[in-house]
Amino acid sequence: MIRPWIFELFGAPAGRNEDVSPRAAADYFGWHLDLWRRAEEFGFEGIFFSEHHFGLTYSPSPHLLIATVAPQTRALRLGVMGVTLPYYEPWRVVEEIGMLDHLTGGRLEIGTASGIPQEMARVGLTVEEANARNAEAIEILDAALLNPVVSHHGKYWNFDDLRIRPRPLQQPAPPRWVTVVSTESARKAARRGAKICTGFHPIDRIEMIFDAYREEARKAGHPHGPEQLAIRRNVVIARRAEDAITTARETLRAYREALHHDPRFTESPLPDAPGPTHNFSVGDDEFIAGSGREVAEGIMSQCRCTGAGHFLCTMARQSTPDLRMAAFELYARDVIPALRQA
User: Fold this and answer.
1) Do 298 and 153 share a structural domain?
2) d(CA 301, CA 71)
3) Nearest C-alpha neighbor of 231 from the set 184, 287, 185, 274
4) Dihedral (C-alpha) 246, 302, 309, 141: value to the nearest 10 degrees?
5) Share of the chain above pLDDT 70, in %
6) Relative orientation angle of helices 183-192 and 203-220, to the nearest 10 degrees
7) Residue 338 belongs to domain spanning
8) Is residue 341 helix, strand or coil?
9) Which of 20, 78, 79, 106 has its CA 20 to 30 A from that of 47?
Protein backbone atom coordinates (compact mmCIF):
# COMPACT_ATOMS: atom_id res chain seq x y z
CA MET A 1 0.00 0.00 0.00
CA ILE A 2 1.10 3.54 -0.79
CA ARG A 3 -0.37 6.04 1.68
CA PRO A 4 -1.73 9.15 -0.11
CA TRP A 5 -1.24 12.56 1.51
CA ILE A 6 -1.86 16.18 0.57
CA PHE A 7 1.18 18.41 0.81
CA GLU A 8 -0.43 21.81 1.34
CA LEU A 9 1.82 24.71 0.48
CA PHE A 10 -1.16 27.09 0.91
CA GLY A 11 0.44 29.59 -1.45
CA ALA A 12 -0.60 33.22 -1.31
CA PRO A 13 -3.58 33.87 -3.62
CA ALA A 14 -1.87 36.74 -5.44
CA GLY A 15 1.73 37.30 -6.42
CA ARG A 16 4.51 37.21 -3.88
CA ASN A 17 4.45 40.98 -3.30
CA GLU A 18 0.77 41.61 -3.89
CA ASP A 19 -1.96 42.00 -1.31
CA VAL A 20 -5.59 40.97 -1.64
CA SER A 21 -8.58 42.44 0.11
CA PRO A 22 -9.54 41.06 3.53
CA ARG A 23 -12.74 39.71 1.97
CA ALA A 24 -10.82 37.90 -0.76
CA ALA A 25 -8.41 36.51 1.84
CA ALA A 26 -11.35 35.26 3.91
CA ASP A 27 -12.82 33.53 0.86
CA TYR A 28 -9.42 31.96 0.16
CA PHE A 29 -9.20 30.57 3.68
CA GLY A 30 -12.79 29.33 3.43
CA TRP A 31 -12.21 27.47 0.17
CA HIS A 32 -9.16 25.69 1.59
CA LEU A 33 -10.93 24.78 4.82
CA ASP A 34 -13.63 23.14 2.71
CA LEU A 35 -11.00 21.21 0.75
CA TRP A 36 -9.21 20.07 3.92
CA ARG A 37 -12.48 18.88 5.45
CA ARG A 38 -13.22 16.90 2.29
CA ALA A 39 -9.75 15.33 2.28
CA GLU A 40 -11.04 12.68 4.65
CA GLU A 41 -14.01 11.95 2.39
CA PHE A 42 -11.62 11.75 -0.58
CA GLY A 43 -9.63 8.99 1.13
CA PHE A 44 -6.37 10.80 1.88
CA GLU A 45 -4.23 9.51 4.73
CA GLY A 46 -3.65 13.03 5.95
CA ILE A 47 -2.42 16.54 5.26
CA PHE A 48 1.06 17.91 5.73
CA PHE A 49 1.02 21.70 5.90
CA SER A 50 4.14 23.74 5.22
CA GLU A 51 5.72 26.73 6.93
CA HIS A 52 6.85 29.76 4.94
CA HIS A 53 7.18 33.44 5.70
CA PHE A 54 7.16 36.92 4.16
CA GLY A 55 4.55 36.58 1.45
CA LEU A 56 5.16 33.22 -0.20
CA THR A 57 2.24 31.50 1.54
CA TYR A 58 -0.61 32.04 3.97
CA SER A 59 0.94 29.50 6.33
CA PRO A 60 3.46 31.20 8.65
CA SER A 61 1.94 29.37 11.66
CA PRO A 62 0.78 25.96 10.38
CA HIS A 63 0.03 24.63 13.87
CA LEU A 64 -2.97 26.99 13.84
CA LEU A 65 -4.24 25.26 10.69
CA ILE A 66 -3.95 21.87 12.39
CA ALA A 67 -5.89 23.12 15.41
CA THR A 68 -8.61 24.42 13.08
CA VAL A 69 -8.93 21.33 10.89
CA ALA A 70 -8.72 18.75 13.70
CA PRO A 71 -12.24 19.17 15.15
CA GLN A 72 -13.74 19.07 11.66
CA THR A 73 -12.23 15.66 10.81
CA ARG A 74 -12.17 12.28 12.52
CA ALA A 75 -9.38 10.09 11.14
CA LEU A 76 -7.22 12.42 9.02
CA ARG A 77 -3.57 12.56 10.12
CA LEU A 78 -2.29 16.14 10.44
CA GLY A 79 1.24 17.48 10.48
CA VAL A 80 3.73 20.05 9.24
CA MET A 81 6.52 19.27 6.79
CA GLY A 82 8.15 20.92 8.51
CA VAL A 83 8.21 23.32 11.45
CA THR A 84 11.25 25.61 11.02
CA LEU A 85 12.94 24.96 14.35
CA PRO A 86 15.65 27.68 14.17
CA TYR A 87 12.94 30.34 14.49
CA TYR A 88 11.61 29.04 17.84
CA GLU A 89 12.36 28.10 21.40
CA PRO A 90 12.44 24.28 21.17
CA TRP A 91 10.76 23.73 24.54
CA ARG A 92 7.85 25.83 23.27
CA VAL A 93 7.54 23.66 20.16
CA VAL A 94 7.35 20.53 22.32
CA GLU A 95 4.61 22.10 24.44
CA GLU A 96 2.60 22.84 21.29
CA ILE A 97 3.15 19.28 20.06
CA GLY A 98 1.69 17.94 23.29
CA MET A 99 -1.34 20.21 22.98
CA LEU A 100 -1.92 19.41 19.30
CA ASP A 101 -1.66 15.68 19.82
CA HIS A 102 -4.54 15.91 22.29
CA LEU A 103 -6.53 18.35 20.13
CA THR A 104 -6.22 15.96 17.16
CA GLY A 105 -7.11 12.91 19.24
CA GLY A 106 -3.68 11.38 18.66
CA ARG A 107 -3.52 12.14 14.94
CA LEU A 108 -0.47 14.43 14.96
CA GLU A 109 2.63 13.90 12.80
CA ILE A 110 5.76 15.86 13.79
CA GLY A 111 7.80 17.32 10.94
CA THR A 112 10.84 19.60 11.21
CA ALA A 113 13.06 21.52 8.80
CA SER A 114 16.04 23.84 9.08
CA GLY A 115 14.50 26.53 6.87
CA ILE A 116 14.72 28.26 3.49
CA PRO A 117 17.94 30.31 2.99
CA GLN A 118 16.26 33.33 1.37
CA GLU A 119 13.63 33.53 4.13
CA MET A 120 16.22 33.21 6.90
CA ALA A 121 18.33 35.95 5.32
CA ARG A 122 15.44 38.40 5.72
CA VAL A 123 15.84 38.20 9.50
CA GLY A 124 19.63 38.01 9.56
CA LEU A 125 19.90 34.26 10.07
CA THR A 126 22.68 32.56 8.12
CA VAL A 127 22.44 29.00 6.83
CA GLU A 128 25.30 28.01 9.12
CA GLU A 129 23.61 29.37 12.23
CA ALA A 130 20.23 27.93 11.22
CA ASN A 131 21.73 24.48 10.78
CA ALA A 132 23.45 24.70 14.16
CA ARG A 133 20.26 25.88 15.85
CA ASN A 134 18.27 23.16 14.12
CA ALA A 135 20.64 20.42 15.29
CA GLU A 136 20.53 21.65 18.88
CA ALA A 137 16.75 22.13 18.81
CA ILE A 138 16.24 18.58 17.52
CA GLU A 139 18.37 17.27 20.38
CA ILE A 140 16.10 19.09 22.86
CA LEU A 141 12.91 18.05 21.06
CA ASP A 142 13.84 14.36 21.03
CA ALA A 143 14.78 14.40 24.71
CA ALA A 144 11.67 16.33 25.76
CA LEU A 145 9.31 14.05 23.84
CA LEU A 146 10.55 11.06 25.81
CA ASN A 147 11.11 12.68 29.22
CA PRO A 148 8.65 14.83 31.20
CA VAL A 149 11.52 16.73 32.81
CA VAL A 150 14.48 17.78 30.68
CA SER A 151 17.75 19.68 31.13
CA HIS A 152 20.02 20.99 28.39
CA HIS A 153 23.26 22.95 28.16
CA GLY A 154 24.30 24.01 24.66
CA LYS A 155 25.36 26.97 22.56
CA TYR A 156 21.89 28.48 22.08
CA TRP A 157 19.79 27.10 24.96
CA ASN A 158 20.58 26.43 28.60
CA PHE A 159 18.07 25.24 31.20
CA ASP A 160 17.61 22.76 34.02
CA ASP A 161 14.64 20.64 35.03
CA LEU A 162 12.02 22.00 32.63
CA ARG A 163 8.73 20.17 33.07
CA ILE A 164 7.08 19.79 29.65
CA ARG A 165 3.29 19.48 29.71
CA PRO A 166 0.98 18.23 28.41
CA ARG A 167 2.59 14.98 27.38
CA PRO A 168 1.56 13.77 23.88
CA LEU A 169 -1.39 11.39 23.64
CA GLN A 170 0.60 9.10 21.33
CA GLN A 171 3.23 7.30 23.36
CA PRO A 172 6.14 7.23 23.42
CA ALA A 173 5.75 10.08 20.88
CA PRO A 174 3.96 10.98 17.63
CA PRO A 175 5.72 9.97 14.40
CA ARG A 176 8.66 12.23 13.59
CA TRP A 177 9.56 13.37 10.06
CA VAL A 178 12.39 15.35 8.52
CA THR A 179 12.50 16.99 5.08
CA VAL A 180 15.81 16.16 3.40
CA VAL A 181 17.58 16.97 0.12
CA SER A 182 20.87 15.13 0.73
CA THR A 183 22.25 11.75 1.77
CA GLU A 184 23.92 13.44 4.75
CA SER A 185 20.57 14.72 6.05
CA ALA A 186 18.99 11.33 5.41
CA ARG A 187 21.66 9.60 7.49
CA LYS A 188 21.18 12.03 10.37
CA ALA A 189 17.43 11.35 10.37
CA ALA A 190 18.02 7.60 10.25
CA ARG A 191 20.25 7.72 13.33
CA ARG A 192 17.40 9.45 15.21
CA GLY A 193 14.81 6.95 14.03
CA ALA A 194 12.88 9.71 12.24
CA LYS A 195 11.08 9.24 8.93
CA ILE A 196 12.12 11.27 5.87
CA CYS A 197 10.46 13.01 2.96
CA THR A 198 12.11 14.40 -0.16
CA GLY A 199 11.18 15.84 -3.53
CA PHE A 200 12.57 17.90 -6.42
CA HIS A 201 15.35 15.39 -7.19
CA PRO A 202 15.12 12.91 -10.09
CA ILE A 203 14.28 9.33 -9.18
CA ASP A 204 17.84 8.01 -9.32
CA ARG A 205 18.96 10.72 -6.87
CA ILE A 206 16.07 9.91 -4.51
CA GLU A 207 17.10 6.24 -4.68
CA MET A 208 20.58 7.25 -3.47
CA ILE A 209 19.15 9.31 -0.61
CA PHE A 210 16.81 6.51 0.47
CA ASP A 211 19.57 3.90 0.18
CA ALA A 212 21.75 6.01 2.49
CA TYR A 213 18.85 6.25 4.93
CA ARG A 214 18.23 2.49 4.88
CA GLU A 215 21.90 1.73 5.40
CA GLU A 216 22.21 4.09 8.36
CA ALA A 217 18.91 2.98 9.93
CA ARG A 218 19.99 -0.67 9.76
CA LYS A 219 23.23 0.21 11.57
CA ALA A 220 21.27 2.06 14.26
CA GLY A 221 18.72 -0.73 14.64
CA HIS A 222 15.81 1.47 13.52
CA PRO A 223 12.98 0.61 11.08
CA HIS A 224 13.93 1.27 7.46
CA GLY A 225 11.04 0.04 5.32
CA PRO A 226 8.52 1.85 3.10
CA GLU A 227 6.69 3.27 6.14
CA GLN A 228 9.72 5.45 6.86
CA LEU A 229 10.00 6.98 3.37
CA ALA A 230 7.94 9.57 1.50
CA ILE A 231 8.15 11.23 -1.91
CA ARG A 232 6.66 14.69 -2.48
CA ARG A 233 5.66 15.60 -6.06
CA ASN A 234 3.52 17.97 -8.10
CA VAL A 235 0.54 16.27 -9.71
CA VAL A 236 -1.40 17.53 -12.73
CA ILE A 237 -4.49 15.44 -13.45
CA ALA A 238 -7.26 15.87 -16.03
CA ARG A 239 -9.81 13.76 -17.85
CA ARG A 240 -7.82 14.29 -21.03
CA ALA A 241 -4.18 13.31 -20.61
CA GLU A 242 -3.07 15.82 -23.25
CA ASP A 243 -4.52 18.70 -21.24
CA ALA A 244 -2.68 17.60 -18.10
CA ILE A 245 0.63 17.14 -19.89
CA THR A 246 0.42 20.57 -21.54
CA THR A 247 -0.35 22.21 -18.19
CA ALA A 248 2.50 20.33 -16.50
CA ARG A 249 5.03 21.53 -19.08
CA GLU A 250 3.95 25.14 -18.62
CA THR A 251 3.94 24.82 -14.84
CA LEU A 252 7.37 23.18 -14.80
CA ARG A 253 8.86 26.14 -16.66
CA ALA A 254 7.26 28.59 -14.25
CA TYR A 255 8.34 26.47 -11.29
CA ARG A 256 11.97 26.47 -12.37
CA GLU A 257 11.92 30.23 -12.94
CA ALA A 258 10.41 30.83 -9.50
CA LEU A 259 13.08 28.72 -7.79
CA HIS A 260 16.04 30.52 -9.30
CA HIS A 261 16.15 32.84 -6.27
CA ASP A 262 16.88 29.81 -4.05
CA PRO A 263 20.68 29.43 -3.69
CA ARG A 264 20.28 25.65 -3.49
CA PHE A 265 18.67 25.38 -6.92
CA THR A 266 20.74 23.96 -9.77
CA GLU A 267 19.87 23.27 -13.38
CA SER A 268 20.97 19.64 -13.13
CA PRO A 269 21.20 17.17 -10.23
CA LEU A 270 24.53 17.11 -8.41
CA PRO A 271 26.02 14.96 -5.66
CA ASP A 272 26.01 16.35 -2.14
CA ALA A 273 28.08 19.50 -2.14
CA PRO A 274 30.42 20.34 0.75
CA GLY A 275 29.25 23.07 3.07
CA PRO A 276 26.16 23.95 5.08
CA THR A 277 23.58 23.62 2.29
CA HIS A 278 22.85 21.13 -0.47
CA ASN A 279 21.70 21.45 -4.05
CA PHE A 280 18.46 20.33 -5.61
CA SER A 281 17.06 20.41 -9.12
CA VAL A 282 13.60 20.32 -10.68
CA GLY A 283 13.28 18.00 -13.67
CA ASP A 284 10.68 15.97 -15.48
CA ASP A 285 10.30 13.53 -12.56
CA GLU A 286 8.98 16.35 -10.37
CA PHE A 287 5.67 16.54 -12.25
CA ILE A 288 3.42 13.50 -12.62
CA ALA A 289 0.78 14.33 -15.22
CA GLY A 290 -1.98 12.64 -17.19
CA SER A 291 -5.34 11.00 -16.75
CA GLY A 292 -6.24 9.36 -13.44
CA ARG A 293 -4.92 5.99 -14.59
CA GLU A 294 -1.66 7.49 -15.88
CA VAL A 295 -1.10 9.52 -12.72
CA ALA A 296 -1.67 6.44 -10.55
CA GLU A 297 0.81 4.45 -12.63
CA GLY A 298 3.38 7.28 -12.46
CA ILE A 299 3.12 7.53 -8.68
CA MET A 300 3.32 3.77 -8.18
CA SER A 301 6.35 3.56 -10.49
CA GLN A 302 8.28 6.22 -8.55
CA CYS A 303 7.36 4.69 -5.18
CA ARG A 304 8.33 1.19 -6.30
CA CYS A 305 11.67 2.37 -7.70
CA THR A 306 12.60 4.10 -4.45
CA GLY A 307 10.82 1.91 -1.89
CA ALA A 308 8.64 4.77 -0.61
CA GLY A 309 5.45 3.90 1.24
CA HIS A 310 4.04 7.45 1.32
CA PHE A 311 3.25 9.88 -1.48
CA LEU A 312 2.60 13.59 -0.86
CA CYS A 313 0.88 15.41 -3.70
CA THR A 314 0.78 19.11 -4.42
CA MET A 315 -1.98 19.59 -6.92
CA ALA A 316 -3.47 22.17 -9.29
CA ARG A 317 -1.95 25.15 -7.48
CA GLN A 318 -2.34 27.46 -10.48
CA SER A 319 -5.93 26.49 -11.33
CA THR A 320 -9.20 28.25 -10.62
CA PRO A 321 -11.01 27.05 -7.47
CA ASP A 322 -13.54 25.00 -9.47
CA LEU A 323 -10.88 23.32 -11.58
CA ARG A 324 -8.73 22.63 -8.55
CA MET A 325 -11.58 20.98 -6.66
CA ALA A 326 -12.41 18.93 -9.77
CA ALA A 327 -8.80 17.74 -9.87
CA PHE A 328 -9.00 16.56 -6.25
CA GLU A 329 -12.27 14.77 -6.97
CA LEU A 330 -10.71 13.02 -9.98
CA TYR A 331 -7.65 12.09 -7.91
CA ALA A 332 -9.91 10.67 -5.19
CA ARG A 333 -11.87 8.59 -7.69
CA ASP A 334 -9.10 7.28 -9.96
CA VAL A 335 -5.80 7.48 -8.07
CA ILE A 336 -6.26 6.94 -4.33
CA PRO A 337 -7.96 3.51 -4.63
CA ALA A 338 -5.11 2.31 -6.85
CA LEU A 339 -2.46 3.57 -4.42
CA ARG A 340 -4.11 1.90 -1.47
CA GLN A 341 -4.22 -1.39 -3.35
CA ALA A 342 -0.60 -1.16 -4.55
Assistant:
1) no
2) 35
3) 287
4) -80
5) 90
6) 30
7) 226-342
8) helix
9) 20
